[in-house]
What we know:
It is built from 14 helices and no strands. The chain is mainly alpha-helical and 306 residues long. The protein has one domain (2-299): Up-down Bundle (Na+/H+ antiporter like fold), CATH 1.20.1530. α1 (2-23) runs antiparallel to α14 and α3 runs parallel beside α6. It is globular.
Amino acid sequence: MAQATTSSAVIALIILAGFLARRWGILWPGDERVLNGFVYFFAFPAFLFAKLAEIRFGPETLRFLAAGAAPIAALLSLLWLVRVCFKLRRDQFYLLAVGSVFGNLAFFGLPFIEVVLGPEEPVRLAVAMIAAVAPFTVGLVLVLLELYGLEGVTVGRATLDVLRRFARNPLIISLALGIAVSLSGVGLPLFLRKALGLLGGAAAPVALFSLGVFLYGRRFGGLTQAAALSSLRLLFLPALTFLFAWLWELGPGAREVAVLMNGTPIAVNMIVLSARYRFFEEKIATLILISTLGALFTMNLWVLLV
Length: 306
């Protein structure tokens, strides 16, 4: 528990540093785009590629990945059932779905797990889960936003648009290349591993710092609604994940990684997407704030319970 508390303090301090950098005028509005560009196009793709290349996808790993992905599919099915039973509007369902499945696995989950559980096998499992879950959740969110932003667009058309974007997405490309190297059994040369390691090592701290920069000066409203929506991501989904992990008899370490990764806050990238599609911009900003602050408590709680 002490390690989990330390991890939360580390994450909070890095976010605070970014916030103060804006507050004190060291950085200016829009500077977070430069930080995000470095992480998105260079640091995080290097990190994913290097870590995935080391993973061997045996039966245990595949069962772990299924235990991480199945709860998300189950939660989406429950949300659809709620929509049908209570006749929710289309935009309300989209907000529920986006707020519950699009987690900050990479920039919040990975640093937390590395500090709490260690930098070796837990991090490799966390990266494998990103490879299994992120393409599905990112694709789903983009399809929903396309449907939200353009009246009359079919699911098929929206899906094709998303697939075209995936072909140019550096994160998806790095995932595909890393998995290909892993399955081939060919290791990376030492110089490349070290270069990717140095570049990828900057991904998490820069992303957290950028989150603090982003939070400064934003308008936040509807705190109660954001707290209720955050509970789906921070409490219900990890509880569902624990149930699947127990039913499929995952080991203690794998079970803990799966629960924590599915208990991360909503991805900060969502603020960019919400602005682009004009999708509940103020609510999404508040949701990111509340879920990020809440996760500093709830992820410690899950460490204690699991």
